[in-house]
Amino acid sequence: MRLSRYFLPVSKEAPADAAIVSHKLMLRTGMVRQNGAGIYTWLPLGYRVLKKIEQIVREEMDRAGAIELLMPTLQQADLWRESGRYDDYGKEMLRIKDRHDRDMLYGPTNEELITDVFRSYVKSYKQLPLNLYHQQWKFRDEVRPRFGVMRGREFLMKDAYSFDLTEDGARVAYYKMFCAYLNAFSRMGLTAVPMRADTGPIGGELSHEFIILADTGESAVFCDKTLLDMDPPGLDLDFDGDLSGEVEKRTQYYAATEEMHDEAAFAAIPEDRQVSARGIEVGHIFNFGTKYSKPMNAVVQGPDGQMVPVQMGSYGIGVSRLVGGIIEACHDENGIVWPDSVAPFHVGLINMRAGDEACDKACGELYEQLEAAGIDTLYDDTDDRAGAKFARMDLIGLPWQLVIGPKGLEKGIVEVKNRKTGEKVELPFAEVIAKVTPA
Amino acid sequence: MRLSRYFLPVSKEAPADAAIVSHKLMLRTGMVRQNGAGIYTWLPLGYRVLKKIEQIVREEMDRAGAIELLMPTLQQADLWRESGRYDDYGKEMLRIKDRHDRDMLYGPTNEELITDVFRSYVKSYKQLPLNLYHQQWKFRDEVRPRFGVMRGREFLMKDAYSFDLTEDGARVAYYKMFCAYLNAFSRMGLTAVPMRADTGPIGGELSHEFIILADTGESAVFCDKTLLDMDPPGLDLDFDGDLSGEVEKRTQYYAATEEMHDEAAFAAIPEDRQVSARGIEVGHIFNFGTKYSKPMNAVVQGPDGQMVPVQMGSYGIGVSRLVGGIIEACHDENGIVWPDSVAPFHVGLINMRAGDEACDKACGELYEQLEAAGIDTLYDDTDDRAGAKFARMDLIGLPWQLVIGPKGLEKGIVEVKNRKTGEKVELPFAEVIAKVTPA
After folding, report:
1. Among residues A167, A120, A204, which one has the least CA distance to residue A308?
2. Containing H/E element for A138?
3. Tens of pLDDT, residues B73-107
4. Measured CA distances, B422 to A329, B386, B407, B429, B434 (Å)
5. Tens digit of each residue's pLDDT (9 = 90 or more) over A285-317
6. Nearest-by-CA chain B residue for A94
7. Would you say residue A134 has pLDDT above 80?
């Protein structure tokens, strides 16, 4: 993409009302624009990151055997009356009346709707196990939306729902998501720690939050350092195999959010492994048995002919929140430092003297070669000052910067800078693409 | 995807309340489920088609130089008070109050919001031309939603918005979208005819609807047959070049919807070229000048230093509606006949005797080869009867069917059926992939 044709409204100043670094940087880099309290437009740069995260989540859900569909944003209130949550949910639920005065709502979550889809079609244990997911916008009418996309009102969530005949089956489904989550977050460059969690208003017995550590985290968290050093299960994991080992390998170590914290258990960890930090919740998984299937009569016939309520779990990932979460974890004093996998572009190409025939030609050719090699490139072909170009490129944090100017051209070289390490090397044109190609 | 692990709730009977063939087929094939009047869940098969259409639209918008972002579904009422449309829009606009009693609405379209984004950042003609688009769910509270996804209340629309300094510039932007639309619809296997249209509530002077012909179309349309036989501009079109020839080549021929129909002009066409038919609107483009930029004060500085309201246009494609539209245009008595480009899977592989060791092995190997070749395959590994498998595969309309059974295996062959032509050939295993690989 040529910057002269792109829409990248960066600004020099941090807006006064942004309290945390990710919010500041997302506004400064023109990733989002607020349209109302907790409601954002995803500007082109931000939208690219959002799509990359969404795609990683999709691939890891698919790998774990979940099947994608899409439920609508608006729902009928009647379904929520069946589950009993319509009155319970409180003011966070955005309640709406349509022109025929029917009670509707903007879905804050989808347990009721997916249970209704399920019971309409699935009648036999032979159709199980099943895990259905979607990535759809939700609305929760927070009293005080804040921290940019970290606590917005309209937000993008991936929510998966598992259906099994037995409790053991439901546990297997839970383990699959547990492992898929670790892989997904790892692919985004994050170390997410599963922490035993309170089950809250969704209810149920088994539940973990996935927390990334960041100074600006919303809550205090406590864990064994061993968990931070552990590799994810890996993309070659056999999801049809026994996953209990992968889960127990982690759950044997202490990890808890503030609400679930046990001082004595934490004190029993060797002192050099006690991590006390702030954390950001990026995922949450629940096993809640028959909490919804019973009142909503989602029953299946078992092998013995008996009809039983289906065992369910739900599994959320905060897709739009992750954009902020990744920035909290990946930035320096000059701006964002994107992990390769979610960077809006992989390379930033800087033309030091736009308008100069030789520079334009060399840049144009390299730009075409990069695009032909499938490397997403933002080509700064503007006539801004060199200093402004460098600062902007650092600010938006693309993994690689390629700088072409008259001096380098005389020597036939390109300056290649790695945004994360700051390392700069001069390379002949022919070696540039190999250098910046992702492993 | 193995059917035994998929979620494909097909049904034998056409539901009584479905009035048109696409709605019937979408319900029978388990593509969508209605969750309320005009509100649908996109089940896995339907969602795959929706995503393919969305991706074609994205690629053709990008090719024409438009830039993708994402605006939220909910908007502040105040923006619509600025443009004057808040009171004008009527009951089709879903009006909402949040917990702080602020007036909001579920966006039926986005002229106001994009104008607000634009005026926040763009101050100079040097930042123009600009075309920003998104693909987002909209809500229009129709009195009588009907025809399935063809006239739903919650629907997915691609809407692009162009910004130019001058009327001439705006015309160039309009021409780009005109050509991009023809390419996009052509890629979906559709012949869309641009018809001069009434500008309606969006206002403005220059406007075309893009109409596909189908017996169940919502309105009568009239055109010169020449338009139906014309090739699209083509994917190698230079969007930076002069596109007026491409546009005039088409607009010189008569084409009009009922509202704009001119009997005398139509009668002047040679009789064998007079087409009088029913049509479905799948796209609509408008040039509306300063209708929104003036009241909302979206002004840019021109080369002479004067501030002038920006010239705008908007360009819609009914993405979710197209799923129904394509089925209306592409089906036979046995079910859907998907064009390759939007088919949910490219190949359906039928195991005639699931459980038979040789059949399972041969099917499993071919399935893996197809997936490795990047060919999306639905593998029917269920133990349903052969007749049921054939009927289901015809119903869901994948372009190719591969049938493997004990008899064929003895001869080392696979039966390959083309869903559209009905042609069946027997091929050795080694030749199957080449046969079904898209050109």
Report:
1. A167
2. strand A130-139
3. 999 999 999 999 999 899 999 999 999 999 999 99
4. 56, 17, 21, 20, 19
5. 999 999 999 999 999 999 999 999 999 999 999
6. B98
7. yes
**ipTM above 0.90 for this complex:** yes
Q: What is the least distance, in Å, from the CA of A163 to any CA of chain B? A: 12
List the CATH code of the domain at B3-336: 3.30.930.10
The CATH number of domain A345-436, selected from 1.10.10.60, 2.40.30.170, 3.40.50.800, 3.40.50.300:
3.40.50.800
pLDDT-derived band at A12, boundaries 50, 70, 90: confident
Residue B390: phi and psi, rounded to 5, are: -60, -45
Of B157, B158, B164, give the one whose Cα is nearest residue B206. Answer: B164
Under DSSP, the state recorded for A397 is T
Selection from A415, A409, A404 nearest residue A381 by Cα: A404
Q: Do B36 and A76 touch (CB under 8 A)?
A: yes
Query: Vertex B67, ends A369 and A58: CA angle to 5°?
Result: 80
Q: Distance (Å) from the C-alpha of residue A23 to the closest C-alpha of chain B? A: 18
**What are the chain A neighbours of B345 within 8 Å (beta carbons)?**
none
The yes-or-no answer to whether A3-336 and A345-436 have a common fold is: no
Q: Which positions in chain B touch A91 (Cβ < 8 Å)?
A: 99
CB contact (8 A) between residue B96 and residue A94: yes
Give me the residue spans of the domains in chain A. Answer: 3-336, 345-436
Mean pLDDT, range A31-52, rounded to an integer: 97
Binning pLDDT at 50, 70 and 90, where does residue B196 land? confident
